[in-house]
Structure formats: C-alpha cells, structure tokens
Amino acid sequence: MTIRTLPPHQLVEACNELHRSGWRLATIAVTDSELPELRYVFWNTNGPGWQQLCVAPTPMPEGVRRIPSLTPTIVAADWLEREIEDLFAIDFEGHPRLGDFVLHDSRWEEGVGPMRAGARTQQALVERAWRPRRVLRDEGAFVMPVGPVYSGEAESALFLLETVGEDVVRTVPRLFYKYRGIEKLAQQHSADDALLLVERANGTSAFAHAWTYCMAAEEILHVVVPERAMRIRTIFAEIERIRRHVAVLRAIVDSTALWVPAARLLELEEHLLRICGDLAGHRYLFGFTVIGGLQRDVND
C-alpha cells in the first residue's frame, strides 16, 4: 500500500486525480487523538493495489476541526463524511447536508462527537422538536412516515415517503436509531473481551460481525488460523447468510398478509436455528468463533 501525507488544501485535487485515474474510494478512517488524522483509502479498479492519503484537519476556534469535503466531486464520500462529522465532530467544508445522520437532532446535542478522544461514552440526551425537510409543495402532497414507532417491520429505521396520491416521489431514510457507541466502549477492553460487544452489535448477524473482527485482530496480532477452522467458519457464515435471507423473505410475505408462506418460512428459519444450536452451541452462533479459531470443533 502506498501512503502519502498531504496538507488539507491539497486533499480534494489529490483525491480527484486518483478518481480520474481509475482509483475508487473504499473508506475514510479516523485515528483520533489530540492530533486527529483522516485516512482516505483508495483501491484500483484495474488491478491489485491500494493507496492511502493521510490528512490532519485544520483546527479552528472553539475546538472545531475542519477539512474540505469530497462529496461534491466523489459521491461515495457522502455517507462516510456525514458519519465522521456526527461521531468525531469534524466539519467537512462544502458538504451539502451535514448533521442529523447518526446522532439525530432530537436526541443528541450538536457537536457532541462521542468517538472523539476524551469524549464520554455516556451523553445526556436532549429532546427537541424535529420536522422533516419537505421538497414536494404540490397540492395534496404529504409525507408518510414508515419507521420505528410507526411500523414493526422497519425496526430501527425511519423512511419518510413524500407522495402525491399513489406515487412515491421521494424517500428520505433516517437511520441509526440504535447507535450505542459500541466502538467507544470497545476501546476500554482487551481484544478478546471486545469480541463480546462486536457479536452483539447485531444479534441476527452475530457470526458475520464476529468473524470480521477476528480476521482483523488476527492480522494485527499475526495469528495463524488453522485451515480446518477457516473452512468451518465459512460453512457457518453461509448458514447464517441463508438464515438471514429466509428471515427477510418471511418479513416480506408477512408484510403483505401472505400467512401460509410466512409460516413455512418461519418453520425453515427455526430449522436452521436448531442446526446452529446443535452444532455450535448457540442458535445465533454467539461465542462460536474466537481470535485464533473456534471455541469448539464439529465432526465431519
């Protein structure tokens, strides 16, 4: 991987040049301390290779940290910058719509930045009135909310559907209602103990989260995983993926009142859960994968 350090005023042009040359933005990572740094990671669409651009935000009065936004020219940066702005209180100058992304205005104080170095893991919640920003102004236009307190199926997401009659013209998603600062809590634990938090971030995809975390930890710690453990991990990742597909299909047919196929899919989902429980010791595969391999073996 090629790593370059740039001043903030050169960031946008350097990223645009990479993008024009066939490189694509993979992610933006933040290493936060008293002197935070943003790492822009690009991958090459024409062959193997990675590039990383490191930039430190410009400190501004009253503790504000600012950096130019890539979003106007590289759309892939949009959600990444909005998330970083909420969690690290870094202002992306020129971004068209910052705020109210992970930390919703009605529950979190603006500028809290819970992932900043030295920030508290618990913050006092505030209650403020919130109204969706409407675009449609036609006669008879209205916003139909589908989301956490309006529908059980949508769970922790709120979708605001702008409509005139039957046609949905615009959809505004409002996500992350379950943000709990798990990343910040994990910083206080050992690598093994943090795995307990990781696999409970999303219980229905516990194994995928745990396996991804273990692979990252194993690479950092130079741990070699036995081939058998890798094969078994792959099998159970597939079982979990199939079970999640079945659960999504069940939710879809259940939402359209197709009770018979919903019942059949629920039966199939239960069958897959029992397979996991019998072989791995937990229906949702909690505690099955660990750093270095597996908690238990299964027979051939």
Can you walk me through this structure?
The protein has 300 residues and is an alpha+beta fold. The chain folds into 3 domains: 2-93, NADH:ubiquinone oxidoreductase Nqo5 subunit (Beta Polymerase, domain 2, 2-Layer Sandwich); 131-177, no CATH class; 189-294, no CATH class. It contains 7 helices and 12 strands. It has helices spanning 11-20, 77-88, 182-186, 191-198, 206-221, 227-255, 259-280, and strands at 2-6, 23-31, 37-44, 50-55, 58-59, 65-68, 90-93, 141-146, 158-164, 167-174, 289-290, 293-294. Strands 1-4-3-2 form a 4-stranded mixed beta sheet. Strands 5-6-7 form a 3-stranded mixed beta sheet. A hairpin with a 2-residue loop joins strand 11 (289-290) and strand 12. Helix 4 runs antiparallel to helix 5 and helix 6 (227-255) runs antiparallel to helix 7. The model has no long low-confidence stretch (mean pLDDT 86).
Q: Quick summary of this structure?
A:
This protein has 300 residues and is an alpha+beta fold.
Percent in strands: 15-25%
Alpha-carbon distance between the two ends:
39 Å
Number of helices: 7
Largest sheet: 4 strands, mixed
Give the low-confidence spans.
Answer: none
* Spatial extent as radius of gyration: 22 Å
Spatial order of the strands forming the largest sheet: 1-4-3-2
Shape: globular
Mean pLDDT equals 86
What is the string of helix and strand elements? Answer: EHEEEEEHEEEEHHHHHEE
Assembly form of the protein: single chain
